[in-house]
């Protein structure tokens, strides 16, 4: 389980060390930094696929994402962008910066200056397993350090680039675990949403990011997952209703049977809120739970009466997978506040800087960054 998320100089997140629990809800006013914190998690996941530099480019480049408020050098010298996390048994952090001027059209691409993977909850010299400074990577073997005979390019992460298990087994373990994280912020419910149309069906233990394979995911839960929990989740949200998956010529579609209706509603007829709820059900009741599942405003389009059912789903899922929820919904926050394994974190903003409400410097989890 992740215990700490750390970031420096990313948009409004000048300096933030966030404690995490099995179920963490992040809330706050519009513009307080919630979306930025969500993006930090996605950025960390991109390092495992060697896509962090490209991800920053899609956001407008490092110049656009770096903190631009008080504390940044007045001469325009860019500060470092740092992101990292710690878990019960390992941690990872990366330090990115603007490269030195060069004769290249890519001279504004950020460089990965330093990376580290360590054992235990905190980075210390004695806990470092693999470290990268510039292009050089060193791996600890017992009490000895061995330099990996493969220099990295400035835009390549050691987490995504090195693939020799004999040289960096701990690195590969971390990479594989991070690649298993799941994010849901693009589940489509509009009139043209792919989940509303019949789709080729195959066993689906992981709902796709846009929800196109909803029907296959629900049928997979019914056949090899918890069908009882699936039926209970639908009945609690829509009393007396049940969901089924119909198949024709290999294409699957969702149907919802409701009391009083002589025929089931087809996926194309479902309201945005009903479809959204079924998508979240498919994500949370996955037969193959990930280590970490992150939801961005799952309450979007949902009727207030569905909040209790949604909260129960999320709380139940947090018993076997760590869940982070970014939400505005007061009903969800109230429900989470009653749970022992849950925490509610409120972000606020002052002078352009996001901070965690109620957290002083002495309240921060212990954290250290790798050296360049």
TrEMBL record:
Q: Which InterPro entries does this UniProt record tie to the protein? A: ATPase_AAA_core, P-loop_NTPase, RecF-like
Keyword Signal listed: no
Which CDD domains does the annotation name? Answer: ABC_ATPase
* Entry keyword annotation includes Transmembrane helix: no
Give the record's keywords alphabetically: DNA damage, SOS response
Q: Which Pfam families match?
A: AAA_21
All copies of the ATPase AAA-type core domain together span: 23-333
Task: Please state what the protein is called.
Answer: AAA family ATPase
Instruction: Write the lineage as a comma-separated list.
Output: Bacteria, Bacillati, Actinomycetota, Actinomycetes, Mycobacteriales
